[in-house]
Amino acid sequence: MHATGWSIGILAAMLALLAACAPKPLVHSTRLAPTGIRDDTSIGVMVLYHERCAEHRAKTGTNCAPGEVTARINSQYSRCVGSAFRDSSHRVTILPGEAFHEKFLALAEPEYSELTPDRTMELLSRPEISAALRQDGVGYVILLSSTTTDSDRQAMLDFDQGVWAFGAESRRTTLVEALVFSSAAAASAGNLRLGIQGDAGWLMPVFVIIPLPPIPYGSRTESKSCKAIGRGIAEFLASEELPNGDPLNGDRPETAPAPQRSSQRRAPD
Prior knowledge:
Elements: H1 2-20, E1 26-31, E2 41-50, H2 51-60, H3 71-84, E3 92-96, H4 97-105, H5 117-125, H6 127-135, E4 138-160, E5 163-182, E6 187-207, E7 210-211, E8 215-217, H7 221-238, E9 261-266
Parallel strand pairs: 2-3, 2-4
Antiparallel strand pairs: 1-6, 1-9, 4-5, 5-6, 6-7, 6-8
Helix pairs in contact: 3-7
């Protein structure tokens, strides 16, 4: 049984190591307008689409309310964005999706599931809503879409040091897109995108003929993407870079309008 314990320990350690060795996600960003945080401000963070919304709509045919069906995912992304601003020199307050929708968008569009990116941007650009955002000190609104899919599912069978192990594994992919609305400009300031892949599944060791509890493992693509996009959003908003890359206090060339700027950065640890 001592050998069995070692085998299980080694197996669990290998699974944890595989999950930890996943490549760091790249955050791709496209800047359409300058940002920057020079004063205390609030940021609305709202998840517009998540597979839980689609599942709820398919099962019940009712509205996917942000305070009910997607409350957990809205809170999760709000915490990720808020955590990324901990070292900010200004106080940044995060308005989670359910609170933001109730305060600014519910009257204009009560059907939360109808808030597509284009529809929400149109609502936020309305003079009365953008004015209400500025009056309440909401500098930016982050509109998030998140999807996670499993593919390439396959069975596994292995033998090592007298221990058989069988299980299943699949490729897990999480895609996140964040649209940034600037209340000062009453328009989009740009967007950020990332995709993370990893393996997820379970293994059940069997010592001789004695089955042991299954060992689940996963790549935690959802939590990793949440933290990575949060850091990317904080960096994007704190930057005072213009679409053409000039600092805000620099001299802009007197030529044609600056093109949108696209970049990609590897998310820090």
